[in-house]
Every structure is written in C-alpha cells, then in structure tokens.
Amino acid sequence: MKRYALITGASRGIGRAIAIELAKDGCSILLNYKSNQAAAEEAKRLIEEAGGEAELMPFDVSQPDAINAALDAWFTAHPDDYIDVLVNNAGIVDDEIMLAMEPEQWHRVIDVNLNGFFYCTRRVIEGMVINHHGRIVNLSSISGQVGNVGQVNYSAAKSALIGATKTIAKELAPKHVTVNAVSPGAIETDMVRASEEYMPEYMRDISNIPMRRLGKPEEVAYLVSFLCSDRANYISGQVIGINGAAL
Known about the structure:
By secondary structure, the protein is of the alpha/beta class. The protein is 46% helix and 16% strand. It has a single domain, classed as Rossmann fold. The protein is built from 9 helices and 7 strands. A 7-stranded parallel beta sheet has the order 3-2-1-4-5-6-7, sandwiched between helices. Strand 2, helix 2 and strand 3 form a beta-alpha-beta unit. The protein is globular.
C-alpha cells in the first residue's frame, strides 16, 4: 500500500527538506502551504526531480474549516487510503518582549504553532488508529525547552507541543502509532533570520554553539525520516534535540 505523508508548512526551509527526504523514502507527499504557491511549486518540482511524487494541499493550519475542507476532498478522492505520516511543521514567529507584546501577536503565534497541530492531528489520526499504523512528528524548538527572551508566545507554543506529544504518544501506543517531537536549535532558515533581533547570543555567535555552526534543514529531515521509518517502531513519546550540542 502506498504511504501518504502530510507535511505542514512544507514549501520552504525545514518543511521542504522533510518533504523531499520522505519522498526519497517512498512516501507520496501531501505538501501543505498557506499562500506562497511559487515556493510550493518549487518544492513539488524538487520532489519529482528526486523521483518522488507530491500534490499541493493549500490551507491555513490555524483555520479548522479550511483543514477539514482540504482533507475531506482528499479522502473522498482516495477512499481506500489513509495518511500514514503526519509532520506538524508549520510555524511562525512574531517576536516581542512580554511587556510590549500585543494580544494579537500572542494569539497569532499560538494559533499557528499550537492550535494548528491540534486541528491537523485530530483530523488525521483516525485513519492511523483504524489501520493500526502511523507516524506523527511534531516540530518543537530549543526555545520551547529553555525559553528565549522576546519569544514568550513561540516558546509557550513549542513547550506545549512537547507536553501534547508525550500525552498522545501514550494514547496511541496501543494502536501502533508513534508520536515524537523533534526540537531544532539554530537552523539555517528564514524563520531564524526573522528572529535575529531576539536570537540568543549562542545562536547569533556560532562560537557559542559547541559544533561552531548552524544546522542545515536536511539534517533535521534525516532525523524525521528515521522516526517515520520502521526502524523507529519502539520510539515514541520522545523529544529529540538537534542543536549542535547547544542543549
């Protein structure tokens, strides 16, 4: 049976690298993005050039009605299939110190980074449970483990993802569905560059990272690939950092 993998926020950065790697593993990719169709088309082209297959699935992860509409249409077109792999990668930053943070900044980041995980996972896990097989990987962050000045919204969402990962891992273990969190440190992405003002010193100055460099999106993708494989059947409820020994 063909394995379908839904990766949210997959048009650029870590999400795109994960999509390409899972396609190399033989998954058929459902490539989610919100609005940047040009980047999504480019990601799809790269997947196909690598010998994989992908279809674009545009929706805003913070909007449950949009998620349900897109997935209802997919399930209708694939009545005998289910989504076996879900990577909750979509995320945004909107940095400000707590004293100056507006409620809109708080809610916007929580809606995408945390509520988006809930909406997508709730919609997809039924097929995994029925078929007694599935892989869920949630992209947390080092910011959710140690906190970061100017990122109370982002740190709160990414920390909450860790708690949610551990809980649903226990709930889904009897159905042979594994749930893990991957927690990147400083990775060469647009999001890291967008947070440069509030980036911790150890990220701004790579001499403070024990490995003396930023990570690459592909390195995160290799870890996700492993967690989604049968080699990781007994790994669930874990938070795995990928940060060059920064934590």
